[in-house]
Amino acid sequence: MGNIVAIVGRPNVGKSTLFNRLIGQRQAIIDDESGVTRDRQYGSSEWNGKKFTVIDTGGFVKSSDDIFEKAIKSQVEIAIAEAAVIVFMVDVSTGLTDLDDDVADMLRKAEKDVILVVNKVDNNQRLLEANEFWSLGIEETFFISSLTGSGTGEFLDAVTDRIVEAEPLDTKIPKFAIIGQPNVGKSSLVNVLLGEDRNIVTNIAGTTRDSIHSHYKKFDKEFLLIDTAGIRRKTKVYEDLEFYSVMRAIKAMDEADVILLMIEASTGLEAQDMSLFRLAIKRNKGIVLLVNKWDLEEKESNTMKEKEKELKHRLAPFNDIPILFISVLEKQRVFKAVEAALKVFENRNKKLKTSELNNTMLAAIEKFPPPNHKGHFAKIKYVTQLPTYYPAFAFFCNNPKYIKENYKHYLENQLRKNYDFTGVPISLFFRKKS
Question: Furthest-apart CA pair in the chain: how many Å?
Fold first, then answer.
């Protein structure tokens, strides 16, 4: 994967509406937990059997007039450098503006796949008016209404035609990626782990040309570290660091087996970290949470326990993950982090014997059967692990539709209780067996 589709354009042209349509859900404007607005700037989408990540750049612009034009141009530059496909969105109701012209100019000069989307084309009059946008000289132009969805099918066909699914790295060695917000200490952690003798593996088939794979092999441990933190084009220091680092994190995540999500002890989990965390779960990656700069926090023993409890509360429902309190500066517990990541990798690749799985799970089901639903009973008869690259289980039953969400949680908890799947998202599927 690593296929990023970035939606760029002026504010209020409908980027967020299109984004919501592409990721197939209404954007939660308000996050229950923390009262965060605009937590959803990127998400996963699939069309014609191809998966890609959609980024709504609108979520990254601070909207004061004097800086937004500059911010939009900076984002277009980043999208040109990092995205696989750029969706340039304009709005027929306001017509062509100078800023649209400038953006089109930047995009024409770039050798990048660009698709122009003219939004709010929802009647014949607007269809006529939309023709003025052909003057921007972008060959692939689509007239759509992101609100009603008209025209989005053909537009999505054009997007997926341009997406080439990268071959996964062919290696049995665990692949780890360190992700997190800018300045949290990612590069320093890479330097502590690798020392100065970096054995840089860049020419493995399928690596993206802008991530470095460093091969770690000492103390009987071996893994590849996908490092995107230290790579920045020398010519430009991007002002929009948050946007840039998100794109980098997504690329690294796609190539890795286990994600080391790094946060700062003093700030805790912020909206951006939660978004990255959810993205990792959606991609079924192993996860380890590293709380850096712990040396600056209180040294009481109970602080760590309290902090861990607080973090797990934020991460719920999926909080069965290793949380390590580290200090990269003091080299505290850095190698424990590596051990935790290797253990998570092992958990993610765990294969259970069908007979043993049935003995354990059917006993748990018998002890607490699925509750009846309006007089209907679901009976689970058989369980098997699916041959996927992450833990997924199929439960065969007479009436899959009567197995409700809370019972699914019960089954997942039983799997976690009986087998160590710490750090790994699990998928459960319910199939009909008469």
Answer: 70
